[in-house]
Amino acid sequence: MTTERTILLVVHTGRDEATETARRVEKALGQHGIGLRVLAAEAVDGSLQQVSDVLRSLGTSIEIVDADERAAEGCELVLALGGDGTFLRAAELARNVEIPVLGVNLGRIGFLAEAETDAIDSVLDHVIERDYRVEERMTLDIVVRVDGRIAHRGWALNEASLEKGPRLGVLGVVLEVDGRPVSSFGCDGVLVSTPTGSTAYAFSAGGPILWPDLEAILVVPNNAHALFARPMVTSPDASIAIEVEAGGHDAMVFCDGRREMVVPAGGRLEVTRCGTPLKWVRLDSAPFTDRLVRKFRLPVTGWRGQ
Fold first, then answer.
1. 6-137+278-296, which class in CATH?
2. 154 contacts: CB under 8 Å, gap ≥ 6
3. Domain boundaries, the chain
4. Which CATH architecture has domain 140-273?
5. Alpha carbon distance 273, 136 (integer Å)
6. Which residues are identified as catalytic?
7. pTM of the full predicted structure?
């Protein structure tokens, strides 16, 4: 059975709720002639494999693909069932082919998700009818230089972070903006975040929340030992560099929580705006303020809760 519409399903496997939700997704989309792709590493999950086998026997189109840069090629969208980690994994697959991502939260906060799992039937109705809009979210290009040469390239939706190694002392760094040194200080690390990532690691490190329609780059020192080491908001077109102090400890670079590589003393992390934003599926027009209050369970009835 061939289909003109295909959706890549990315699932947090190993959880009964995820398997049951995937079953409902596969059945509903299959009934409307929408084909599915499942990542090979997830397809070997016992429960998900059983669901796929049954649906294949009913004529539903299910394709098993590797989790590489072509996994989402030709798809209508990527549907992520899980928490923020699952959404970030889906975003990594979707970004190169500019396919929109829709998140359904099966985790705790799930700030990146558009809907909760109890609304899955409504979500599927929107998908089947193509009743959704697509926003663009700013992303980051990451370059690590060692001895002046490019040693690694990466990408981030939320943030890139340069961090000290485990059980090591203070990390000495020099922060630069647009090729000009701003400050040197000791710290546990420095985060460079998008507005989308401002509610994640950067927020935990003391950074401000930025509305996602704002275009800017947020720089947040983590546990810095200096007076002038406060969070900074720069132009979205700024070039941010963090150099590891020569003669000091090695550091590590993480992109959206994924460990990328070790940066030796004297190496540097360079972060700029990526030319390709992430396409983000929205199902309603609720403002970001409502999402912020709901996800963080903020009191809004008065400072004494009255």
1. alpha beta
2. 141, 142, 143, 144, 160, 253, 255, 260
3. 6-137+278-296, 140-273
4. Sandwich (2.60)
5. 13
6. 84
7. 0.88
Q: In what order do the strands lie in the sheet with 171-177?
A: 149-156, 140-146, 268-273, 240-244, 171-177, 180-187
pLDDT tens for the chain, 306 residues: list them.
Answer: 456 899 999 998 777 788 889 889 988 998 899 999 999 877 665 555 555 554 454 445 688 888 888 899 999 999 999 999 999 999 999 998 999 999 999 978 889 999 999 999 999 999 999 999 999 999 999 999 999 999 999 999 999 999 998 878 899 999 999 999 999 999 999 999 999 999 999 999 999 999 999 999 999 999 998 888 899 999 999 999 999 999 888 999 999 999 999 999 999 999 999 999 999 999 988 899 999 999 998 888 876 655
